[in-house]
Amino acid sequence: xxxxxxxxxxxxxxxxxxxxxxxxxxxxxxxxxxxxxxxxxxxxxxxxxxxxxxxxxxxxxxxxxxxxxxxxxxxxxxxxxxxxxxxxxxxxxxxxxxxxxxxxxxxxxxxxxxxxxxxxxxxxxxxxxxxxxxxxxxxxxxxxxxxxxxxxxxxxxxxxxxxxxxxxxxxxxxxxxxxxxxxxxxxxxxxxxxxxxxxxxx
Length: 202
Known about the structure:
Layout: H1 13-32, H2 36-52, H3 68-76, H4 94-97, H5 101-110, H6 119-133, E1 136-137, E2 142-143, E3 148-149, E4 155-157, E5 162-163, E6 168-169, E7 175-177, E8 182-183, E9 188-189
Parallel strand pairs: 1-4, 2-5, 3-6, 4-7, 5-8, 6-9
């Protein structure tokens, strides 16, 4: 469990405000827009800015061989043009997964950038996305970089959970992490029952 007496590290006030504004903007957009195509567009545009430093270029030139690597990069930032591991799983509920797929892609791509190692930003970003992906997201949850989940929509995290780097949450069926629980680095957590033999918290 976390120690409430230890002060939370903070960035500069300017950075704090910018981080919060970006998170609030994304939270508002994903709250207002549930349609997968709109969410995919939002994710694509934000990934372009994060990874390429500019907005999408618009119409691509597919005729020049020299442009193909850039075309591949630009197209692959769009969630509409990627397939995720979950989509190859027979248990997947495609109707439930469709609106969260762009957000799962956003989570995975964010975690592959230097931004993911900035914990004061990463915790906020993943909490925000988790509210739109997971079945439940409690208050004060800390999710470190590299955390994976099977589908996402069957994960429930209660208050003050800590999920350490590279943990795996196997939510092929409903998976609940109790209040204040810490899931250790690289742990594999599965639901209780006959298929839950890999369950490991620390």
